[in-house]
Amino acid sequence: MVEPNEGPGEEVEASTDVARTAIDQAQLAPSIVQKFTNVVGDANTAIKQLDAFGSTYLQPLKTFNAVVDTFANVHPYAKMALGVLSWASQMIINQVNRDMAINELLEKIREFYLFISEGDRLKKLVLMEEVLKAMSDQVFDCARFIANYSETKGFWRRLGKNIMAETEATIKKYNAVLDGLMQNFRDRAALYTHIAVHHILQDLEQLSDTVHLNNMSYAEGAGLNTSKQCLQGTRTEILGEIVDWVHSHDPNVPRVLWLSGQAGKGKSAIAHTVATWVEELGGLGSCFCFARDRQAERRHEKIFTTIARDLAGRHPILRRVIASTIAEDPSLKSTPDVRKQWRKLILEPISHLSASVGGTVIVVIDALDESGDDYSREHILQVVTMMGVADPPAHYRVLVTSRPLLDIRSAFHNVGHIKAVSLDDSSYTKSTMADIAHYVQTKLSQLNYTFNKTDVEQLTAMSDGLFEW
Asked: What percent of the chain has pLDDT over 70?
């Protein structure tokens, strides 16, 4: 169990009161299916029905988003999971007019958001890490199903299946799992509800796609390493800032966050912690790590082919687009031209998608300063600095970590779409020293010797603000 910071307290209590009041005031209408099947040709009647739909079925989702925005004093992981729920609700709000065949699922989702927003449930939910994660996973997958429903119907039609029967079966499965999750919360029992995941567009063409993708250059061993995470309870200040950036709905949020600091400051630990959390919540596009002892492998020439393969594994539509691009131009499988890799294998393919079918996608590039000499990352820096000119969709964001080397500092200096955060900044000194003291105490406690408080304080002072020295 991840312990939160000092509880949300009165701030959250007030927020949940606001939510409860708003929900109590919502006009609850008859069954949505009955409501919309009875709509006749009268235009004014239809408009009134749609207005009622928005106030009744979408209000709990909107209220939830408003409440979550006020939750400042919770652990960064809980904030991350709440952010996924917020993204899911926004996806549903944006896509709700797609097809009225999914009304039953919308009814259940309305019930779910009402349920978790009632009373002090949200305040309790942030303390139940496994339940919160399972809820965010499931609701986010429901949101993806709603957003992709038009393509799903086409897929079922190509397989000669009964669309309504398949829709009803899928929605029945979702509803059962959401009911189970709510009951688990009520019972405070250990979570063991199977998360139903609906995989769309998985037909025989996927085999051909996989063949194309497997032949792409790929940097083996450059991915996420969960053993490199921060010690539990440390770096919560900077992790909270990064989580806020990950889940910001501001359309002008910087596409790139550059986390810099001298060697030993814990940049990689922070990067792998964020990547692990995002992966657990379904939002990790790729984690690409450079390493000084692997420079002979020329990872810098494989960076965007590797990231493209990882992204393709995450989304079936993206996989198909990238595979089709490679089929048309096989040279892309192994080109060392990283700018071409970026443009043809990532930027152009993701332009086919929108936030409504994916939520926030995070790509982590760790230890860029260890790619090799300046020339090895020259074109990578050009790609990152061009992201504000040839924008990827706003929900695709890149976390870069490195030492503040001259070439990297010069490339990222005063670039509007890059948010620069330095661990060398004096504002982090107090929290960093407290984290190092906790780190030292934890490591010393594992030894067969008793160290007193003075020993810990002396070693902490000798660290000079570094976790490795």
From this structure: 70
Q: What's the full length of the chain, in residues?
A: 469
Task: Report the distance separating Cα 174 and Cα 276, nearest Å.
Answer: 26
CA–centroid distance for 283 within its chain: 3
- Per the CB < 8 A criterion, the answer to whether 11 and 115 are in contact is no
Give the closest residue to 346 by CA, choosing from 383, 385, 375: 383
Q: How far apart are CA 268 and CA 277, in angstroms?
A: 14
DSSP bridge pairs for 365:
288, 400
pLDDT digits (tens, 9 = 90+) for 158-186: 566 777 777 778 888 888 888 888 887 77
Q: How far apart are CA 375 and CA 300, in angstroms?
A: 10
* For the chain, the helix, strand and coil percentages under 3-state DSSP, each to the nearest 5: 60, 5, 30
Burial of residue 414, with CB atoms counted within 10 A of its CB: 0-12 exposed, 13-18 middle, 19 or more buried: exposed
pLDDT at 310: 93
Pairwise CA distance, residues 236 & 76, whole Å: 7
Please list the alpha-helical segments (H only) found in 69-204.
76-95, 103-117, 121-125, 129-147, 149-158, 163-187
Residue 284, classed as helix, strand or coil, is strand
Q: Is the overall model pTM greater than 0.70, yes or no?
A: no
pLDDT above 70 (res 35): no
